[in-house]
Amino acid sequence: MINGKKVLFSGMQATGNLTLGNYLGAMKNWVTLSDEYECFYSVVDMHSITIRQDPSTLRQRARKLLMIYIAAGLDPEKNCLYYQSHVSGHAELAWILNCFTYMGELNRMTQFKDKAAKHADNINAGLFTYPVLMAADILLYQADVVPVGVDQMQHLELTRDIAQRFNGIYGDVFTIPEAYVGKVGAKIMSLQDPSRKMSKSDENPNASIYLMDDPDTVMRKCKRAVTDSEGQILYREEQPGIHNLIDIYSACTGKTPEETVKEFDKKGYGEFKMAVGEAVNSVLKPLQEHYAQLEKDKAYIDRIIKENAQKAEYVATKTLRKVQHKVGFPDRIR
Ligand code: ATP
Ligand code: LTN
Predict the structure, then answer these.
(1) Ligand 2: centre distance to CA 131 (Å)
(2) Which of 32, 201, 291, 302 has the greatest number of beta carbons closer than 10 A?
(3) What total of structural domains would you count in the chain?
(4) What confidence score (pLDDT) does residue 68 get?
(5) Which of 127, 129, 116 shows the shortest CA–CA distance to 162?
(6) Do 115 and 158 share a structural domain?
(7) Which atom of ligand 1 is nearest to the CA of 115?
(8) Band of the pLDDT at 64, cuts 50, 70, 90?
């Protein structure tokens, strides 16, 4: 508990351009939950270097991502928006937790297997222990809830296992976090291959809608989305392309998939795709406008970065000192 509220932690990597999947699967829920919880939203730049990055591009993207957090509706005076690399406790706790995580557990992580296959020339130890750093992020802030898309559930289960193991040995040190996965939009699929998730690292730009896409581009991508020859708008697994478009439309309009199916009963795919494009554009427009304003105010963003890092550091250090004492590190002499 902080200020009488339960704690929420989540983060996103500053790799690539953010997609509609990132927004609908994670960020939209962040905004909804932000009043109820004491929130920490991190730009997890330390996770990003598990894949080779160009330094100046990473720096630019990290700043952009922080501005997108604000543009999406997170008030930086109320929510702690900060860079992971500005709080050294993440790395320090990750090291300790590495010593409480088994190789066998990490070997089972599907994201590791996917990323290792994709980057076969650079299967580094950081990529392997990535979930431990993620556990450290969450546990440092004693988070009660972690809103993520379904693809992150396995990492969250591991975080809970590590925390329970640690508590089992040393007493109640960590809060055991719960995942929060939204009802619609938890897994938005690629527009070109609805069997794969929409991903910011997809090489095909038509597969993903980016948060900064202009309205015409959004419309074009929706019109080109891969569907089927059934000709009926039904919410069922046999029609993965249409299923995905129903999810997108529903998440953007706040309707349930059933309401969407009813609304487009007997209508054609062309008309439906146009409506999806319009719904997406109505979500992206205010975000893009707010972002354009923020870009003009460098001093404001700099102040947010500085103040929020201090706030995060304060909370993180409290947990870290407790953990260091528990495992037997000598206390600091003041
Ligand atoms: P990459 O493709 O580089 O692995 P990513 O697009 O999966 O990146 P992350 O930074 O790993 O993005 O994810 C940020 C958040 O967005 C996570 O909570 C994740 O669950 C969510 N998310 C990512 N892609 C989707 C998607 N297609 N549908 C729903 N949620 C998603
Ligand atoms: N692994 C996550 C990003 C991430 C995260 C976190 C999410 C890093 N640390 C802590 C929630 C809580 C991803 O790839 N989407």
Answers:
(1) 8
(2) 291
(3) 2
(4) 96
(5) 129
(6) yes
(7) 4
(8) very high
